[in-house]
Every structure is written in structure tokens, then in C-alpha cells.
Task: structure prediction
Amino acid sequence: MATSSPANRAQQLIAPIAAVLVVIAGLAAAYFSTGTPVVIRFGIVLGAVAIALGVLWVAQTSPYSVRDRITVIGVVLVVIAGVVAFYYFENSPLLARLGIVLGTVVVGLGLGWTTQLGKSFYQYCQDSLTEAKKVVWPSRKETLQTTGVVVAFVFVMAIFLWMVDAGLLWITQKFLGQGG
Result:
């Protein structure tokens, strides 16, 4: 088992405490912000939780650099801000509100693209598309035949379950002395 340096141990001890303090600060800010719409209070708490999880993630050992991890936390916060803004501006036209959300998603994707995690995800998507092109899809005739078998099986099972239900109802009525 590898031993960790005193700095690493201190970082591992301080990170959970910092995360709890951030969540408490977010809850307090939401509680004491009287007159603020509920969606903003919810956004404050959600942002505090995201930051707290980010603090814990940054403190862990990871193949990604601290800069990349902080950037990913920023991406999450930007998207949360977009969703909160969507509900905050509820009296604005829907198109403008959707533009805000789409804008924050585009900014988040742009920020995410700069990280190693984003580049790995993009490569994964490219590999998935390549694999999907290799799939041999069934012909129209095979698809219709398989669909027909499934529909017929569902119909037969429906009749069987109806007969079982009717039989159990009849037995229950005879047992309890009810019915004709």
C-alpha cells in the first residue's frame, strides 16, 4: 500500500470539510435571501452542491489535471445558471428563454471541449458512430416478420391473461358466495 505525503493527507482531510462548508453557505444564502424567487434560491443551493462535489473531485487523484477538473466544474455551473435563468425570466418570450439555455449549453460545450475529458468524450462519440456504421441492419421483410411475431405473441398473452383473470374472478366469487 502506497503511503501518501502529509500534503496529500491534509488535502484529503480539508476537502470534505470545505465541501460541507460550501453547502452550508449555499443553504444559508438561499434561506436568508428573502424576497428572492424560489428558482434563484434553488439555483444557489444547486450551485453550492455542484461546487462542493467539485471540491471533492479536485481533491481526489485523477488522470485529469486540476485545471481540467476545475473547467468541468465551471461547465456544470454555467449550465445550472442557464437553467435557473430560464425559470427566472418566466415572463420573457419563450424564444429568448430557450436562447439563454442554448447559449449556456454552447458555452459549456466550448469550455468542455478544451479539457482532456471533453476530447476523450468526443473521441468516444466518433468511435461509437464508426461502430454503428458496421452494424448489419435487418431488411424490411425481416423487420416486418419480427414485428408480426411480437404482435401475435402479445395478443395471445393478452387472451391468456384475460382467461386467467376471469377464471380467478369466477373461483373467488364461488368461494365467497357472490355473483350469479
Remarks:
- The mean pLDDT is 82.
- Residues 98 and 137 are 37 Å apart (CA to CA).
- The first helix runs from residue 6 to 32.
